[in-house]
Amino acid sequence: MQGSDSAAGAGWLDWLGDSALGAAMRGELWLYPLIEVVHIIGFTVLVGSVVMFDLRVLGLSKNIAVTALARHLLIWSLAALLLIVPAGLMMFCAHPHDFASNNVFILKLGLIATAGINAALFHVGIYRTVSRWDTDVPSPALGKVQALLSIVLWFSVILCGRLLAYT
């Protein structure tokens, strides 16, 4: 059964690589670099927004309400995802077998998933008490730990993204 699962996975990767998009990403001189720039711009906006929020949770700019900053930065984060996800999928289509078998790429995806879980746990957990520490009050220790973890995870994602060029 496991052999058929890996054959199905390879078939799916073959299909992506053989698709018109995969061929265009490999064949058009400027397409891959342009899409990569879009991906990087999106990641810059996303990670910048996340880190600004995390720094506020860690205690910087205590006069800015956490809730107001969250509302403001959420729009930028969502807009960034509209750039990152399609661009990342397009780049993946160019060399699906290479990416799927690359340990750095797999680590990058794992780190992104972990950062997402950390953010979800923050929002369903400690953020529910934000009214007590919204302005001029230190955030709870757990929130600070999650903010620091978030920064480390996202910087690690960036590191993995850069290492992909060399692996």
Architecture overview:
This protein is mostly helical and 167 residues long. It has one domain. It is built from seven helices and no strands. Helix 3 runs antiparallel to helix 7. It is elongated. The two termini are 31 Å apart. The model has no long low-confidence stretch (mean pLDDT 94).
Features:
single chain, 167 residues, mainly alpha, 7 helices, 0% strand
Offer a concise description of the structure:
By secondary structure, this protein is mainly α. It contains seven helices and no strands.
Main beta-sheet strand count, sense and barrel state: none
Separate helix tally: 7
Helix content: over 70%
Shape: elongated
Order of helices and strands: HHHHHHH
Mean pLDDT: 94
**Number of DSSP strands?**
0
Cα end-to-end separation: 31 Å
Task: Record the SSE blueprint.
Layout: H1 2-18, H2 20-27, H3 31-58, H4 66-94, H5 96-100, H6 103-124, H7 141-163
Helix pairs in contact: 2-4, 3-4, 3-7, 6-7
